[in-house]
TrEMBL record:
InterPro entries: cNMP-bd_dom (IPR000595), cNMP-bd_dom_sf (IPR018490), RmlC-like_jellyroll (IPR014710)
Source taxon at top rank: Bacteria
Organism: Marinicrinis sediminis
Protein name: Crp/Fnr family transcriptional regulator
Any Pfam family the entry gives: cNMP_binding
């Protein structure tokens, strides 16, 4: 499975494949069951993740217990939350295979592999740029446009997550999502829980 990480890393560096393989030897892989909570709201994160296989949901819960889905992370996406006690919970929606980075030894890894720090910076810059573009597009679009954009950019996600979580992510009710899906001629979304 680490070949997925190595192929991903190649996009951000010109390090040889053999050097990338040596670097990847020191990176732990975890196989986690569906339902595993990686981080609870209010905890201080000490790990970061890279999804090799599976789907991780990021959500927040308000004082009434209402959950709002903020993001879904799937293959070849990094999952990192910084800045003290988090407002989010990270939850495995599927069985997952994740690269697990320990934030407490991150600096040591950068000292052993200086190119890793440059590569990580490039990845973060790209992710932040994508997030900024996605947020601007989200704010300027109607619920139907959000659904169509999601269907175009991440078509597989629609069949992988429960409809109520997808609706929350899009900022609409499950009933509105059903109507939009019907108008858009989208395949039936699965209903779970």
């Amino acid at each position: 499975m680490k070949h997925i990480l190595i192929d991903y890393m190649k996009r951000y560096t010109d390090i040889s494949e053999s050097d990338l393989e040596k670097m990847a030897e020191h990176i732990p892989v975890a196989v986690l069951k569906k339902g595993t909570v990686l981080l609870h709201q209010g905890e201080v994160p000490d790990k970061c993740y890279f999804v090799l296989k599976g789907c991780v949901r990021q959500y927040t819960t308000d004082e009434t217990g209402k959950e709002t889905t903020c993001q879904f992370f799937t293959e070849e996406q990094s999952v990192t939350i910084f800045n003290g006690a988090t407002k989010y919970t990270l939850h495995c929606l599927e069985d997952c295979v994740l690269i697990v980075g320990d934030l407490s030894v991150e600096q040591d890894m950068y000292e052993r592999h200086p190119e890793l720090e440059r590569m990580t910076r490039k990845m973060i810059e790209e992710n932040l740029g994508d997030m900024h573009d996605d947020f601007a597009s989200f704010m300027a679009s109607s619920p139907e446009e959000r659904f169509l954009a999601l269907q175009e950019k991440r078509p597989g996600l629609i069949d992988r997550v429960p409809q109520y979580q997808l609706a929350s992510y899009l900022g609409i009710t499950p009933e509105s999502l059903s109507r939009i899906k019907k108008r858009a001629g989208a395949p039936h979304l699965r209903r779970v829980d």
